[in-house]
Amino acid sequence: MKNEKNAIKVSIVEDDVKVRGSLARMVDSAAGFVCVSQHPDAENALKEIPVSQPEVVLMDINLPGMNGVDCVRRLKEILPKIQVVMLTVYENTNIIFSALSSGASGYLLKQSSPEQIIEAIREVHAGGSPMTSHIARKVVASFQKIINPSQDYQKLSLREQQVIDWLAQGHTYQEIADALKISYATVHTHIRHIYEKLHVRSRTEAVTVHLRHVGSAQS
């Protein structure tokens, strides 16, 4: 493994051994970057990445067992400062939003050039959110469709409305689970569905829509 001083440390989570090896070689051959670990699945990544301590992770979505989106969510709970770039063949808007709401900071297609991938690693390490122009247009188009958030709010089930109400009060996922007598995992599932239905990517955005809806209902 290359030991380059001040190099950006990168880990790769990819089930295809050839793609994984190719990405590792690409990272190691770029000046200022070093691949510190490679992982064939989410379970291995969650166990080993806290040991290898990368700064940036290239994450596939379609992994065996736990998928990449759930892996990002779990990984961010363990290492909040880690930056993740999703690298996938999918362009589905819902999957894009799920990945971003789980904590990913960037989203690229696997057919991106090596130069684009290296630049994305550099950008996310510097605090940016790299995306291909095509994916960025899909994200913008999705936001432009949100004309009336209250209409989206009506899509929430009663349980989802209860969850977001507790969320707006500042409670943690575990506190919500205890209050509603459901599991922590079920709260996570409800939160993911809430994000998808409200077309939001974060707790703050979801709570903003909730408070706006409550305010309009009371006026």
Please explain how this structure is put together.
The protein is α/β, with parallel strands linked by helices. It folds into two domains: 8-142, Response regulator (Rossmann fold, 3-Layer(aba) Sandwich), CATH 3.40.50; 149-218, Orthogonal Bundle (Arc Repressor Mutant, subunit A). The chain is 57% helix and 12% strand. The protein contains eleven helices and five strands; from the N terminus they run βαβαβαβαβααααααα. Strands 2-1-3-4-5 form a five-stranded parallel sheet, with helices on both faces. The longest helix has 16 residues, at 203-218. It is globular and about 55 Å long. The termini are far apart. The relative contact order is 0.10.
Question: How are the elements arranged and paired?
Answer:
Layout: E1 8-13, H1 17-29, E2 33-39, H2 42-52, E3 56-59, H3 68-78, E4 83-88, H4 93-102, E5 106-109, H5 114-125, H6 133-144, H7 149-153, H8 158-168, H9 173-180, H10 184-198, H11 203-218
Keywords:
11 helices; Rossmann fold; alpha/beta; 5 strands; 219 residues; 2 domains
CATH architecture of the largest domain: 3-Layer(aba) Sandwich
Q: What are the segments in which pLDDT stays under 50 over at least 5 consecutive residues?
A: none
Rg, nearest Å: 19 Å
Number of distinct beta strands: 5
Average pLDDT metric: 86
Measured between the Cα atoms of the first and last residue, the distance is: 63 Å
Task: Write down the domain tally.
Answer: 2
Binned strand content: 5-15%
Q: For the record, what CATH class of the largest domain applies?
A: Alpha Beta
Describe the main β-sheet briefly. 5 strands, parallel
The SSE order reads EHEHEHEHEHHHHHHH
Helix content: 55-70%
